[in-house]
Amino acid sequence: MTALGRALGGLAGVGLLAACASTIEHPEPGGPAFESDDVRFVAPTGWQAQPTTAASQSDTGYVLLYLANQPLRADCLPELDCRSPLADGLSRGGMLVTWFAQTCVARSCDLPPATLISIGNRQGVQVALTNGCDETGFTERSAYYVTVTPQRIDALFICARDPSGATRSAFQGFLDAIQWRIP
After folding, report:
1. What is the pTM of this model?
2. Which of 102, 121, 119 is closest to 63 using CA atoms?
3. For site-directed labelling of 69, which of 26, 50, 97, 153 has its Cα 20 to 30 A away?
4. Domains of the chain, with CATH numbers?
């Protein structure tokens, strides 16, 4: 086989792998359901969702809920100023999502500069998180920002500690299945 033939064969193999990767099915979420006036979803199987209370709201936004694939503290609500909703930080393979809903005006409603992606039935971006996740034992952190309305941006702050491929896939399936009810 010539060098050109080997190169073309290698490119064909890479093309097939890329095609397979784009058709990977994420697991169907089968965990607890969350429903409010403006959004609904089903969490990944085995995960916990902990909504916050109206008392936790401020003028510009509020923590909507915490979502994790490990136990959450029942006594940790934002108005109690808990350092973390996790009892003992992230365990290996753990992932914690803090969902923050924020009202905005004018330029403060612009998404951070990044490639647009689909999150549920809205456009958003994924960016590196430069602070947060303190005292969780994280190994990685990121944020997803989603345009919900022209005057609302939701941010999902992700803290993770060595998550497995299955955990990442379950989380991606959750993102794909979010349904905002606001037109």
Report:
1. 0.79
2. 102
3. 153
4. 28-180 (2.60.120)
